[in-house]
Amino acid sequence: MLLILFSAQGILAQNYKFGKVSKEELIDNSYEQDTTANAVVLYKSQNINFIYRENEGFVQRNEIHERIKIYNKEGFEWATKRIRLYDRYTSKSEKLLGLNGYTFTLKNGKAIKTKLKKEGVFEEKNNKYLATKSFTMPNISEGCIIEFEYKIESPYANIDDVILQYDIPIEKLEVSIKTPEYFNYKKSMNLKAGFFPEIVESKNQKRVTSTSKERSGRGLKAVTTETSYSNWTYDVNAINIKENNIPALKTEPFVNNLNNYRSKLILEYSFFKGADGVIEDHTTTWESVAKTIYKSDVFGDQLKKTSYFKEEIDALISGINNPEEKINIIYNFIKNKMVWNGIAGFESNTGVKKAYKNRTGNVGDINLMLTAMLNYAGLNANPVLISTRDNGIPVVPTLTGFNYVITAVELEGKTLLLDATNTITAPGTLPLRIVNWQGRMIKPNGKSTWIDLSPKVFSRESILLEAEIKADLSITGKVRKRLTNYLAYSFRRDNVSIGEEDIIRNLEEEKGEIKIIDLDIKNLKTLNKPVNFSYNYTLDNEVEQIGDKLYFSPLLFLASNENVFKQEKRIFPVDFIYPSATMCSVNLKIPEGYIVESLPENTKLNYNGNEGDFSLIMKHVNGVIEITLAKHIKATYIIPDKYQELKIFTDSVVEKENQKIVLKKE
Questions:
Q1: Torsion angle defined by CA atoms of residues 66, 68, 73 and 75, in that order, rounded to the nearest 10 degrees
Q2: Architecture of domain 459-665
Q3: 605 CB-near residues (< 8 Å, 6+ apart)
Q4: Which residues, at least 6 apart from 445, have a Cβ–Cβ distance to it below 8 Å?
Q5: Where in the chain is the domain with CATH 2.60.40.3140?
Q6: Distance (Å, rounded) from C-alpha 419 to C-alpha 439?
Q7: DSSP letters along 111-122, please?
Q8: Which of 154, 404, 510, 660 is deepest in the core (most CB within 10 A)?
């Protein structure tokens, strides 16, 4: 019996030695703990330690080993890995070493191993502080296993966040972090995460032998006359994490950025304490980060340059005294003149003068240019450092916490936010990808303050729907719609660069058997005005006939089909980004020979006090059913504890919108 037990354990034991992938792993076609997973990390090992070298001191080494099983084509994205490297100075940059990788596939019952080659490795310079090395594994197919290992050597004591959770499950995770007693860190977990591992801390000693040599003579005749050795020890603080079957981080509707809720260990470098007991503080504040950035020649100095645009701006604003008009003129001028090259960053990449001449630049080039122009025109404009939604919310102060810059204009007690990289944003409306909590506004004296990026003004949708039910039970009519602020921005974003046929296709999507004609759109490119559009339509199979009665929903194709909030429990906050209001008026003419048998009851609902409301009112007047709907969502950020109220409210809204009007023959 004991022999059988040991034999079974031997079969179940997993070999995680690099390059030793088993046939059983290749045959496996799903992950038992989560059968919906497109891929699974079979093993991840991360070891961070500091190596002492003569004449260099301590060097940080971060060793990574990952083995990933890819089940289907949706999992192919995991075959590409991007590695961020700090590159602050040429003499003090991080280095990627020892990159090695294989793709394992099964062919005719045999495991085939394909090596990662140089052609699959790429390098990109992001900005002054960051570079990216990426690699894509070869010979990817459904059911394959990829495995790679590499080391990052860094001259810095700062330790990147240790990621403990992926968007796919992790079957086995092993993390080891060893730091010398001289480097002191403030340890914390991402408190927004839903998974917290067990952390084991310990302390041990390490001995180092140093050598020194004395030489006599000069030039080629110099010889070593004496070599001496000295031994010294220091304490090593160790952190170990070992976890199995870590669940995937899965998105939910209206999540601002999934990375904000990822489980990770944060080690903030606080201070250095030398052998002599002297402490060197390394704690960084957002104030000092902002000052460092402002003093940079690729940031603050660029705001002072005006000669390259002076002549054109003078001509544009000559005789203009209204501040709002000046803002609009300069904002539209730079958006028409400059083309964003798709590169983010808060610093000028080529210098604003060169970017202006070439008519293209990165985010820093364009928005620092905009700030300088507005100030030149006599307005109070300042740059605002932000982190985009896909970059997450920076937890601790760091130069890499921000990756974008916009412009803030203070006008009559209000702050107007501008981003000139986007051709379809009106003043005060930012691209949704950068509306992320708050930004750091920097004043000319280097002082800085947080500024809220959350939209406060309602984005409104006003709809007038005319409908007539024909004798054959088809419906014809007309729709008029007006959109403001972020709803107008979203419509422009989706439709400004496509033709009318594609716009109609977008409008017809998920509206049943509808045919739209005579589309008329106004202000699609006039950004300081609402978007207005109208169209005629015919609609089939919206009315259900049972015997001598007709049944249909009051809002027809405008009704919500389902509640997007299906989960019973919510893990992450709901982020609507901006407050919204919908007003809808429906005039529905009933067919001859029918009368109204019943209308749904008039409804008024409230969500969490005054954070949202919904009303649906109907009346029948001379063969026409008049319907008025109003809905407001005032609360834009809803914590999981308040999710049930939101789910119940939305369930009720969907139910009320889909109640049936009943007609019967006279």
A1: -70
A2: Sandwich (2.60)
A3: 613, 614, 615, 649, 652, 653, 656
A4: none
A5: 2-203+235-281
A6: 13
A7: EEEEE--GGGEE
A8: 404
When pLDDT is averaged across residues 75-94 and rounded to a whole number, the result is 84
pLDDT at 449 over 80: yes
Does residue 223 register a pLDDT over 60? Answer: no
Reply yes or no on whether the pLDDT at 10 is more than 80: no
d(CA 624, CA 606): 28
Can you tell me which residue has the tokens 């192919």?
76
**The model's pTM:** 0.85
Asked if 625 and 599 count as a contact pair (C-beta separation under 8 A), the reply is yes
Q: Enter the DSSP assignment of 457.
A: S
CATH 2.60.120.1130 domain span(s) along the chain: 459-665
**CA 378 remoteness from chain centre:** 35
DSSP single-letter state for residue 291: H
Count of beta carbons in the 10 Å neighbourhood of residue 192: 14
Indicate if the pLDDT at residue 380 is higher than 90.
yes
Task: State which amino acid sits at residue 467.
Answer: A
130 bridge partner residues: 86
Task: Give every strand in the sheet of 594-598, ordered side by side.
Answer: 544-546, 549-552, 661-665, 594-598
Could you tell me the pLDDT band of residue 177, with boundaries at 50, 70 and 90? very high
Range(s) of the chain covered by CATH 3.10.620.30: 286-452
pLDDT score of 219: 44
Contacts of 396 (CB under 8 A, 6+ apart): 266, 268, 284
Name the architecture of domain 2-203+235-281: Sandwich (2.60)
Residue 281 has pLDDT above 50, yes or no: yes
Give the per-residue pLDDT at 68.
98
Helix, strand, or coil (residue 508): helix
- Look at residue 327 and give its three-state secondary structure: helix
d(CA 36, CA 528): 46
Is pLDDT above 60 for 384?
yes
CATH class of the 286-452 domain in this structure: alpha beta
Measured between alpha carbons, how far is 616 from 628 in angstroms, rounded to an integer? Answer: 6
Please, are residues 139 and 105 in contact by the beta-carbon 8 Å criterion?
Answer: yes
pLDDT higher than threshold 80 for residue 603: yes
For tokens 């992950």, what's the residue?
A: 31
- For 363, phi then psi, to 5°, come to -60, -45
Separation between Cα atoms, residue 20 and residue 111, nearest integer Å: 11
Strand order across the beta sheet in which 200-216 lies:
110-115, 95-107, 145-154, 57-70, 39-53, 170-180, 223-246, 200-216
Contact 310, 330 (CB under 8 A): no
The pLDDT value given to residue 229? 66
